[in-house]
Amino acid sequence: MIATLEQRNITAEAAEFEKQSEDFRTELACLCKMLADPNRLRIVFFLLHEDELNVTEFCKRLEQSQPAVSHHLALLKQAGILKVRRDGKHNFYAVCRDRFQGVMVQLFESMLEPSNGEVRIKDFRLTHSRPEVAGLATD
After folding, report:
1. Please, are residues 90 and 97 in contact by the beta-carbon 8 Å criterion?
2. How many CA atoms lie within 13 A of 72 on its CB side?
3. What's the whole-model pTM score?
4. What are the Cα distances from residue 99, in Å, to 31, 95, 106, 115?
5. What residue segments make up the domains of the chain, in order of their start?
6. Nearest Cα to 39, choosing from 7, 86, 74, 15?
7. Which partner from 2, 25, 59, 93 sits 20 to 30 angstroms from 109, CA to CA?
8. What is the 3-state secondary structure (H, E, C) of 5-72?
């Protein structure tokens, strides 16, 4: 048996796709690293259920000191997961939903079964469909 190496001619389109894939993998790795800490994960869960919260509220919910909570919030903000709004003496934090959801949608779309738009992990099934845009026919 003879093995041969073929040199691929990468087109500009394929190179652009690879660059986008690399950017996505980098962004996903950053997101996973930030959410690997239980306190940061809890912060994001709190904010996905609330519009915004301030540091004092996080301290109560996490039962942690203000410096510890502020450290977690700063890391999440630096990663682009959270945004901050100043109101008087307080900073209010909220999830950057467009970015966060965009990464999650891209992740799950990469795992979808082409035939039925489902991701299956053991007995867990996740289905995905794009929302209809008002005024546009989907037929």
Report:
1. no
2. 21
3. 0.63
4. 10, 9, 11, 27
5. 17-127
6. 74
7. 93
8. CCCCCCCHHHHHHHHHHHHHHHHHHHHHHHHCCHHHHHHHHHHHHCCCEEHHHHHHHHCCCHHHHHHH
Token pair in block for residue 114: 């082409």
CATH classification code of 17-127: 1.10.10.10
Tens-place pLDDT, residues 71-91: 999 999 998 889 999 999 999
Which residues of the chain fall short of a pLDDT of 50? 1, 4-7, 133, 136-139
Torsion angle defined by CA atoms of residues 83, 88, 90 and 91, in that order, rounded to the nearest 10 degrees: 10
